[in-house]
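User: Please fill in residues for this 600-position structure.
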């Protein structure tokens, strides 16, 4: 018996946690700041540490100038001092680098966590249709790609961009103080390299986006094949599917190759530019050294700094290339994931308040993919009434259930439960009050205990067992080696169709919702199992408003009403005994059954 008071108390304290902390940005740069904000102080400390450490690295090379100068002047004391201080400063610099690593780790690990959490939460609020149109594997891959790009963005910014930018700036200052023309040449080198890479960047970004898209498609196709491996084997299509996998990986390889070769091209251009400017600056300084305007120590430190910055210029394209790849990877994921939600809760919507469970469809019109499913549809289901939905495939039975669960929004009209428009209450509170036993139960790759308790996570072991016993599932569960702790496999593949259905019924019993939807709930069962399940369903239906969709008409004989749908309209409405002899569509359907199933 449904305990409405306990259910109302549960609903009162049930607050769905799918609210977002501000609007999630849809562009990579804005999204990067969004996931960085919670860790901004760690980011600041890591940034300061990198700036100090990179500056130290430049200063250590200047010490060589003092050592060479001391050797030239025969100043043994200076040579010994700077030679001994060098390892001390080097060790100090190492400590600062490690500090940047520790501080950066909080940012580096926190940003992807924030990214995954935010995108997962946002994605879970998409409509039913959104997921029907996309590969689950591809979507999960895009979430992972964006989160991984956030992690690499942090690493690239701290230990590639800043680590290289600081030496360039300090070296430019040092060169300028050494010789104005050399300093100007170095600054021009920086500007020219930057301009060249900015010019080359759009094409690299295009390649990177194509690579990210190809990789997502490959993952989605592969997951689709693996998820349906039984069908692949039954139809002997392993070779065909493997060819499909090869085609996807070949496309990913081809696009990846173009992107990689273009990165090498960028680095080659950077090498040519650097060598041209470096030769010019070396000639100037050697000439200055020969006439005594530049010391030997300064010439050596200049060569060290020039060699140090050479890799920065040559790999400047790689840094830009990496940034472009990460940008493209993040952009590809955000474009797909951050589409506007099709179905949203109204502002200030409240939890639904259940009383009798009366359902009222009033002038409902709905079309799907341009096809009209319902037009001016009206139906009232009284509280605790049990109705059966009958009709050929495509008459609107599944859509009826989807609209009741608000998996789609209506074009016109309204659906009310106990006088409350379901479009004006929270989606979570609506669905918490409706238990569904589908034709193909959705089981998680978790234990049987967890799957049954999914409708009531805080259920006690005894409550779980009681529900399983009522669903005629306890016996087969206890016969398993690990009993209720048995893992059911992906989508419940380790269980038979009947066993999965019993677990689903037990879950619905435990949920204890006032409205029950049975969507072909016994279609996977043999006749003997059906008899046992019907007993469980009779217990489950007691005191609830029930909507049962069935092709097996024998399961509907005890319903209070049977609704016959045709082209989205009610053409018959009554009890089994009257309709089966009424000379209408239902009688024809009943007489044309084969083995208890409706023939389309």
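Assistant: Residues filled in for all 600 positions:
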């Amino acid at each position: 018996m449904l305990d409405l008071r306990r259910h109302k108390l549960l609903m009162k304290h049930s607050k769905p946690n799918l609210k977002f902390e501000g609007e999630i940005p849809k562009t990579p740069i804005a999204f990067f700041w969004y996931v960085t904000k919670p860790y901004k102080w760690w980011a600041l400390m890591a940034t300061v540490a990198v700036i100090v450490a990179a500056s130290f690295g430049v200063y250590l090379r200047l010490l060589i100038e003092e050592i060479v100068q001391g050797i030239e002047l025969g100043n043994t004391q200076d040579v010994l001092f700077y030679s001994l201080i060098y390892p001390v400063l080097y060790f100090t610099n190492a400590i600062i680098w490690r500090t940047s690593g520790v501080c950066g780790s909080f940012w580096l690990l926190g940003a992807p966590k924030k990214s995954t959490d935010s995108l997962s939460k946002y994605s879970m609020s998409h409509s039913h249709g959104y997921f029907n149109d996309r590969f689950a594997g591809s979507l999960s891959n895009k979430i992972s790609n964006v989160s991984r790009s956030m992690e690499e963005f942090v690493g690239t910014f701290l230990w590639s961009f800043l680590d290289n930018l600081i030496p360039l700036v300090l070296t430019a200052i040092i060169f300028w103080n050494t010789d104005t023309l050399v300093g100007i040449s170095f600054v021009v080198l920086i500007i020219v390299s930057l301009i060249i890479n900015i010019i080359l960047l759009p094409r690299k970004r295009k390649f990177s986006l194509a690579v990210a898209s190809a990789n997502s498609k490959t993952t989605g196709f592969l997951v689709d094949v693996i998820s349906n491996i039984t069908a692949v084997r039954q139809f002997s299509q392993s070779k065909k599917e493997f060819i499909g996998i090869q085609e996807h990986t070949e496309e990913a390889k081809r696009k990846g190759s173009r992107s990689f070769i273009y990165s090498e091209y960028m680095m080659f251009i950077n090498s040519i530019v650097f060598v041209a400017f470096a030769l010019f600056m070396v000639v100037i300084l050697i000439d200055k050294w020969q006439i005594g305007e530049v010391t030997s120590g300064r010439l050596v430190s200049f060569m060290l700094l020039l060699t140090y910055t050479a890799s920065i210029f040559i790999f400047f394209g790689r840094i830009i290339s990496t940034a472009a790849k990460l940008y493209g990877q993040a952009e590809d994921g955000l474009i797909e994931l951050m589409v506007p939600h099709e179905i949203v809760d109204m502002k200030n919507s409240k939890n639904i308040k259940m009383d009798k469970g009366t359902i009222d469809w009033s002038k409902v019109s709905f079309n799907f993919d341009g096809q009209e499913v319902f037009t001016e549809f009206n139906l009232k289901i009284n509280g605790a009434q049990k109705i059966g939905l009958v009709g050929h495939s495509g008459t609107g039975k599944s859509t009826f259930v989807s609209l009741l669960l608000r998996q789609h929004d209506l074009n016109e009209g309204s659906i009310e439960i106990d006088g409350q428009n379901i479009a004006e209450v929270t989606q979570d509170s609506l669905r918490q009050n409706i238990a569904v036993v589908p034709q193909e139960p959705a089981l998680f790759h978790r234990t049987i205990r967890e799957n049954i308790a999914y409708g009531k996570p805080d259920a006690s072991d005894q409550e779980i067992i009681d529900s399983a016993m009522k669903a005629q599932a306890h016996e087969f569960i206890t016969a398993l080696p690990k009993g209720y702790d048995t893992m059911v496999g992906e989508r419940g593949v380790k269980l038979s169709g009947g066993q999965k259905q019993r677990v689903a019924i037990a879950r619905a019993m435990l949920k204890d919702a006032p409205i029950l939807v049975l969507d072909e709930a016994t279609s996977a069962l043999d006749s003997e199992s059906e008899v046992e399940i019907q007993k469980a369903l009779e217990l489950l239906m007691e005191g609830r408003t029930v909507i049962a969709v069935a092709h097996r008409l024998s399961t509907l004989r005890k319903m209070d009403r049977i609704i016959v749908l045709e082209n989205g309209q009610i053409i018959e409405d009554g009890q089994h005994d009257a309709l089966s002899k009424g000379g209408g569509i239902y009688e024809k359907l009943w007489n044309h059954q084969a083995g208890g199933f409706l023939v389309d």
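For context: The chain has 20 helices and ten strands.
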